[in-house]
């Protein structure tokens, strides 16, 4: 339960408060996750970041740089963002939530139903933290820690890319989310969520450069999902394989349209 609430006006002030309260304090951006299952916090101190100027989108020689405190709706309304990113943001079906939730908060929450994280993984996104540290999103997901994220950096934002969510109903929890991208060198990037404890890149499958049924089979054999109320292990393997194969086809068709 949150018992103390601090609204900071600088990154330095935020870092000082975190250093003082340590594991008893939690960063608070839009606040859409801190009181909701399964991401409800047990911390008693909230450090609100809403006063920090970290909510802008900037283009830097073809690189897309996004402030971590931008809301999902503001990002979705930004002109010229990649279509795949626009689509992934739309899977957060409630506009009210999109107006509250932030990009940094979505990354930090690491929820299994996120479509955004697989997309950012196949775009090989880089993260900048308040202490000056740079990590790829993939590295961050391995050891997330309690860093203060300030910027999300996509060096190849218009990579051919597609993303999809499979759920039992339009507003239901995701069973599997997936994203596929094709690089300028015709290399495939594949990411999934909902099939492991954290979002994953299927690097071994990527290196095989497969398509169609062969790709479906390789994906299904490369993952080890847990059976739960959303489906059996076999069902999740099957859905993941089909999603990835279909998304690769979408990327290839996008290439044909561009030509």
TrEMBL record:
It comes from Buttiauxella izardii. InterPro entries: CO_DH_flav_C (IPR005107), CO_DH_flav_C_dom_sf (IPR036683), Diverse_Substr_Oxidored (IPR051312), FAD-bd_PCMH (IPR016166), FAD-bd_PCMH-like_sf (IPR036318), FAD-bd_PCMH_sub2 (IPR016169), Molybdo-cont_Rdtase_FAD-bd_su (IPR017698), Mopterin_DH_FAD-bd (IPR002346). This is Molybdopterin-dependent oxidoreductase FAD-binding subunit. NCBIfam families: Se_sel_red_FAD. Pfam families: CO_deh_flav_C (PF03450), FAD_binding_5 (PF00941). GO terms for molecular function: FAD binding; oxidoreductase activity. Gene3D superfamilies: 3.30.465.10, CO dehydrogenase flavoprotein, C-terminal domain (3.30.390.50). Residues 1-186 form the FAD-binding PCMH-type domain.
